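Technical annex, item 7. During the second reporting period the consortium partners agreed on a shared format for inverse folding records so that results from different sites could be compared directly. Each record opens with the tokenized structure and is followed by the designed sequence. A conforming record, contributed by the partner at site C, is shown below for reference.
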């Protein structure tokens, strides 16, 4: 578990300051600093983890004494998990010994650094799954919160949030192995935002590739549909994302939706299209989507501050966002989501409140609140010295104010996930008015049903419920390679479909 420990400890210290050793290093390998030791043992009744922290070891002799525990540690932490405790409701959380070890380490390093991690020892993407385990074991909210705090070291507020999300998700989860969800990737956008790491090619430069791309995508849809029909699968929801699907013109958009609907029976199903960038939206495109029964769209301002929009590379104004939102309502859309980001470069609490106030005035039906993440493939990550990330306390305040606004607007949290290098070690949360929850988003997080993804950069997730495992399959990201090698890729998908059917 060295990699997981490194991921966690780096939340407290710089990457290059962390070294691991299974055995005591020789004198020539000694470097003055701190020592953190972790010991695990088990007997007939319990499993025990003990962590100790020794400060300012300046000589090899002092290091030897600390390594051998001949001197008292500055801080120590111990977790004991009895075999009986594993059998109690919520006890399955203790089976992840990595989390228990992490909670010991978190306890120590929080004392030493004064930095409290809201999610304690958790570094995973889908923490709601732990709350769902507790609910499925019959624990109520108080019991779930208590168990999450005990096992992971997270704070009470986050434990309560995870319970609330899981409680909303639970009625929507359907373990029917004959239900699938579809994702269609459109890898074009008006421009690449500063923080973006998605497969997104500037439409102005790659416009000539759109017809060939749609032809290749249509082949993949036809192939997948044959397998769906042959095996009598049902489509639960459809999500067209990217990139920005509305970056392509209205004729291409109509061709895409028509091809999708001729390949799959999706009548009456949840059908979402990301119309994320207001500078890609027109009345004609909205009418194309509405007339073809797209039931949900997402218009994503990220911020309502002109200065920030320019900084992150968006060529539109806050007024454009509101105008396109009102236009979508006028065309007839009654299920509109909006995305915002807390912690964008150079934004303070007042600027974020301005965004929240304008979002409230527009009154979307759902709101996704992202915490800024420093994604490895983004322009932001490549040039961190030019941008000042927001302080943890500022981002925490932003997230709390967004949560209060969502509640004021009659929304409740319905899905949640986390990312690497996310500011303040926080989360991304989707809020929705009751009945407006996005089924596709829920299943993306809970991974109880298979998602078949088509298009460049798309990622399928095959769920094998009887084996309690899943397998991810990634399509080619490069648009030209995707177009040129569609046949080869479909052969690879054929083998995966055969494997899925056999198991």
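Designed sequence (site C submission):
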């Amino acid at each position: 578990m060295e990699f997981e420990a490194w991921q966690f400890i780096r939340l407290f210290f710089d990457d290059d300051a962390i070294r691991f050793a299974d055995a005591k290093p020789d004198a020539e390998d000694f470097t003055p600093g701190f020592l953190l030791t972790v010991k695990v043992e088990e007997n007939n009744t319990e499993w025990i983890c003990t962590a100790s922290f020794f400060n300012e070891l300046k000589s090899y002799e002092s290091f030897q004494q600390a390594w051998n525990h001949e001197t008292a540690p500055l801080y120590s932490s111990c977790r004991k998990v009895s075999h009986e405790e594993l059998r109690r409701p919520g006890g399955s959380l203790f089976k992840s010994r990595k989390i228990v070890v992490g909670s010991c380490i978190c306890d120590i390093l929080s004392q030493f650094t004064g930095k409290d991690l809201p999610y304690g020892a958790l570094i995973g993407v889908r923490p709601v799954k732990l709350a769902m385990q507790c609910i499925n074991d019959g624990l109520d909210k108080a019991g779930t919160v208590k168990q999450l705090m005990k096992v992971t070291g997270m704070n009470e507020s986050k434990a309560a949030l995870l319970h609330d999300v899981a409680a909303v998700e639970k009625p929507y989860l359907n373990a029917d192995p004959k239900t699938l969800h579809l994702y269609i990737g459109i890898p074009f956008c008006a421009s690449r935002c500063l923080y973006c790491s998605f497969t997104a090619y500037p439409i102005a430069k790659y416009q000539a590739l759109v017809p060939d791309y749609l032809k290749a995508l249509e082949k993949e849809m036809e192939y997948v549909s044959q397998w769906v029909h042959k095996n009598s699968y049902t489509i639960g929801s459809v999500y067209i994302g990217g990139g920005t699907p509305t970056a392509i013109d209205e004729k291409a958009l109509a061709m895409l939706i028509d091809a999708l609907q001729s390949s799959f029976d999706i009548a009456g199903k949840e059908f979402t299209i990301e119309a994320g960038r207001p500078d890609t939206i027109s009345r004609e495109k909205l009418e194309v989507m509405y007339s073809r029964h797209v039931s949900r769209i997402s218009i994503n301002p990220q911020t309502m501050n002109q200065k920030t929009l320019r900084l992150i590379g968006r060529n539109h104004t806050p007024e454009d966002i509101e105008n396109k939102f009102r236009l979508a309502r006028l065309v007839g859309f009654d299920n509109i989501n909006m995305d915002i980001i807390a912690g964008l470069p150079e934004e303070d609490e007042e600027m974020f409140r301005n965004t929240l106030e304008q979002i409230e005035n527009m009154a979307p039906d759902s709101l996704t609140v992202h915490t800024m993440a420093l994604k490895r493939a983004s322009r932001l990550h490549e040039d961190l010295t030019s941008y000042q990330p927001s302080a943890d306390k500022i981002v925490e305040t932003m997230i709390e104010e967004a949560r209060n606004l969502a509640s004021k607007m009659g929304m409740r949290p319905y899905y949640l996930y986390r990312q690497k290098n996310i500011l303040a070690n926080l989360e991304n949360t989707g809020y929705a008015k009751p009945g407006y929850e996005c089924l596709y988003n829920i299943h993306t997080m809970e991974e109880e049903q298979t998602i078949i993804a088509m298009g460049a950069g798309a990622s399928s997730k095959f769920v094998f419920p009887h084996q309690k495992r899943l397998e991810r399959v990634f399509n080619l990201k490069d648009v030209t390679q995707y177009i040129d090698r569609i046949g080869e890729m479909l052969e690879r998908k054929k083998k995966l479909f055969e494997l899925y059917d056999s198991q």
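The mean pLDDT is 93. The chain has 19 helices and 16 strands. All partners now use this format for quarterly exchanges.
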